[in-house]
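Input sequence (210 aa), recorded before submission:
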Amino acid sequence: MSQDAEYDRMLAGQLYITEKNQRRTSRVAGKLLVQRINALPADQLDEITRLEAQIFGAADVYVQPPFEVDYGTHIKVGKNFYCNVDAVFLDTNWITIGNNVKIGPRVNLLTAGHPIDASVRVSMLEFAKPITIGDNTWLGGNVTVLPGVSIGANAVVGAGSVVVHDLPDNVVAVGNPARVLRVISDADRKSWADQAEQYQKETGRDESQI
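Predicted structure, token format:
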């Protein structure tokens, strides 16, 4: 089987042997760009954001270095994306992130998985399943998202949670494994809108201008 065929199996979510893709991984432009970003001084923000735009395919993106990728070519993000320090984007399959997503420090988005059966696992076979994160979602610090998971729009995932199953829109989820704690209500929205309005009155600034 050719290396390209093994790579295609990886993106199709089928079993594959990662070592057969190692040569491809070592020369992937995205991974090399991340190495350059992580070596830059913090005051070279323009250069950091320029290089990150090449990786994530959007201009209004900021991922706080250092961070890590596997390929750096299987990540799509929407508008207004912010991710705090020490993120891991294990993009052996596609990671798709919507608009206005915020991610806390030390978050792991892990598309790679390994067979539960030991006899298959030790043969070096593994798999990768895509991860999808909806618009306006917030992942707290140290959240881990496992292969094949979709997180709905407007969701909040509490710090330290491990997301092993899909989460719907408009929920707060916490725990290991992450479970829905409650639905985000109209009362929640009104409370936060009132606080934002109060901020604007006290400072003369719209919170969207921060």
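Checked by second reader. The chain has six helices and 19 strands.
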